[in-house]
Design brief:
Mean pLDDT is 86; it is low at 67-82 and 90-95. The protein is α/β, with parallel strands linked by helices. The longest helix has 33 residues, at 7-39. The chain contains 11 helices and 18 strands. It folds into 2 domains: 52-61 and 101-318, Spore Coat Polysaccharide Biosynthesis Protein SpsA, Chain A; 329-381, no CATH class. It has an 8-stranded mixed sheet, with helices on both faces. The chain has a 5-stranded mixed sheet with strand order 6-13-8-9-10, with no helix packed on it. 29% of the residues are buried. Bound molecules: 2-acetamido-2-deoxy-beta-D-glucopyranose. Residues 245-246, 310-311 line the site of 2-acetamido-2-deoxy-beta-D-glucopyranose (NAG). The active site is at residue 291.
Amino acid sequence: MVAARSPSVLRQKKMLKIVVPFLLLLVVVFLVYNKEDYEKEYPLLLENEQLVVCYESNIDQRRPLYAIAPLSETTTDESSTTQRNHQHHRQQFQQQQLFDGTEPIIYIVTPTYPRREQFPEIIRLGQTLMHVPRLHWIVADDTSSCNAALNSHIKKFGIPYTQLASPMPEMYRARKNAPRGVANRRAALHWIRQNQKKTGVLYFGDDDNTFDLKLFSEIRYTKKVSMFPVGLIGDYAISTPIVRNGRVEGFFDSWPAKRKWPVDMAGFAVSLEYLALSPNATMPFKAGYEEDEFLKSIGLKLEDIEPKARNCTEILVWHTQTKGSKSPTVRISMDRQKLNKLNLGALLSRLESMGVNHISESEGTTAQAIVNGSVKPLSFWFS
Ligand SMILES: *[C@@H]1O[C@H](CO)[C@@H](O)[C@H](O)[C@H]1NC(C)=O
């Protein structure tokens, strides 16, 4: 005899019939909704994206930072020989420095954004790049207006450069994991195309990286795509291709994340001839997947990759990273004009123009002076 089902079991079954499809619907809606973010096609420029070239110079105005001196003394005592050797050394040195203008130009793209480390970073990177011949520096700032204070620093280096204003679209800024630097690199790609740059090499070098100068001579003659290790990345403190018998066969990176090309932004260079073959190449606004998607968009194949840095045994670039705290607010309640009688007037204004700190009359840490070991209000000098 079959026992009749109790009414409560029947009710449960009915409930399931309603609840299960409802849950499935939720999952589908969630997937569709999420997919929008990740699988959207990204045109090179969004509709509201613009290429704003703020300042530009194509003239190399660099002067050597240090006097040219022979590296080693000769052993002979004969003065004329010594002199000749000195001359020889000098010529050799200059020949190393002097390029004949046929070498491929390195277009280094540096996204930057307003924060208190911005200026120090740009100064440090600029002074590194001063040593690299045949280089064009594209500095793309994450702001909607052109930063003149930034330009006054960039142009001092004498390096041929282009300064862009390339703000991240607001819709992405609202995300918790905002894709920083993407609008900047896309603007730089756009500039390269618009200016018909079809020879040379493209390199994405961030302002918080440290570069060994050797890196630039390694990447200058990149045929298609070159790759090399980047120090201080992730839980291995390194991200690098795995090289066997002089060929890239895989990758070593502590964040695989299903990426086909698990490399750091500073870990590859692309020749512009090769880039020109993919007119729709772009970088998506997808945090963590910028490198992977960009390299997919240029149709990269494993056999196209040239390992650099002695078959990826040397570290020529580091992700030093200087993630800082917020710019502090300094409270100065007295008339600031008066401070112009001291160095503090000009000094604090300069810091403020660089976004390093803010001055407020009513908030923040009160500015005080120390005189003979005791704390005084700033008005001390004016009383
Ligand atoms: C890289 O490895 C290959 C194969 O072992 C070798 O022929 C080549 O000389 C190496 N390159 C460098 C720069 O050491």
